[in-house]
Amino acid sequence: MLTVPSKQEILGYLRTIMQSAKLFYPYDEELLNEITVERYELMKSGQIQFSHPDGTHDDRLWALALAVYATRGVKPPRPVPITRTF
User: What average pLDDT does the segment 19-30 reach?
Assistant: First the structure.
């Protein structure tokens, strides 16, 4: 169950990873549309409410955000040197 505070944390983490250029994914026009049309509103309670315009979806956005959030605290693997033999 995604609560308002957990949604804030999850999308905040996704934003941080994207801003630090640590997220690489193939071009997906529908995903990019979902990312760009997502809206937020600061409520009187101080929490942020997320929404998307009628006729649009945010399923891919949340799938990406949850997948990225699941990686927090995991160190990326070290690159394996490529050796060529000719």
Answer: 90
